[in-house]
Design a protein that fits this description.
By secondary structure, the protein is mostly helical. The protein has 2 domains: 1-26 and 50-128, EF-hand (Recoverin, domain 1); 132-224, Recoverin, domain 1, CATH 1.10.238.10. The chain has helices at 3-24, 48-54, 59-72, 80-88, 97-107, 117-129, 132-143, 153-167, 179-191, 201-209, 212-219, and strands at 78-79, 114-115, 150-152, 198-200. Helix 5 packs across helix 8 (153-167). The longest helix has 22 residues, at 3-24. It is found in: Cell membrane.
């Protein structure tokens, strides 16, 4: 496998680990020392100049990302099944299919069942170089599974279960069976300001901005690539 293709695939696992550590409060400087790369998607972009305007990547960075992108998927786009297959290679100890589905949905902004290079690089730009509010909005959109503008306990439990399924049962320290539900309860105690059983985007952003650990986690990505 070429160096570019390896770099592309490493991006997938790092995005997953980012959100796992963001949710569990374990994101540290050590966890992001390696460069973020790019995932697999394909089709010829309309123009790197336009993507330069839409993202915070330089033309040279976009060229490097696209080269790896094109090597991995010459056809131009990646569908969900392919995305899941690639993702699963990095989590052989667990089942990453559900989490990969949620992540795919977040990148598939056009809701057409495929992710293009433009889709992915725009999302990547937000994650790596967006403002704190941009990043928090992107994370909220990932957790808001039915896109109705709020996060329910059921949605967050689905997310947490998918993360624990992905990490597998043989991690160290061993993950307890009730850990996903405990994380959900902690999440809502912190985020659900008016105790109405749902977390709105305003509650989410306000709570995150007041959480020093979350803010430090976000800022760790400012100079990744």
């Amino acid at each position: 496998m070429s160096h570019c293709r390896k770099r592309c695939k490493r991006q997938l696992i790092k995005v997953a680990r980012y959100f796992y550590r963001f949710l569990t409060g374990t994101l540290t400087q050590d966890s992001i020392e390696d460069d973020f790369e790019l995932s697999t998607v394909c089709h010829r972009p309309e123009g790197l100049e336009k993507l330069q305007e839409q993202t915070k990547f330089t033309k040279k960075e976009l060229q490097v990302l696209y080269r790896g992108f094109k090597n991995e998927c010459p056809s131009g786009v990646v569908n969900e099944d392919t995305f899941k297959i690639i993702y699963s290679q990095f989590f052989p100890q667990g089942d990453s299919s559900t989490y990969a589905h949620f992540l795919f949905e977040a990148f598939d902004t056009n809701k057409n069942g495929s992710v293009s290079f433009e889709d992915f690089v725009i999302g990547l730009s937000i994650i790596l170089r967006g403002t704190i509010n941009d990043r928090l909005n992107w994370a909220f959109n990932l957790y808001d599974l039915n896109k109705d503008g709020c996060i329910t306990k059921e949605e967050m439990l689905d997310i947490m279960k998918s993360i624990y399924d992905m990490m597998g049962k043989y991690t160290y320290p061993c993950m307890q069976e009730d850990a996903p539900r405990e994380h959900v309860e902690n999440f809502f105690q912190k985020m659900d300001r008016n105790n109405d059983g749902v977390v709105t985007i305003d509650e989410f952003i306000e709570s995150c901005q007041k959480d020093e650990n979350i803010m430090q986690s976000m800022q760790l990505f400012d100079n990744v690539i």
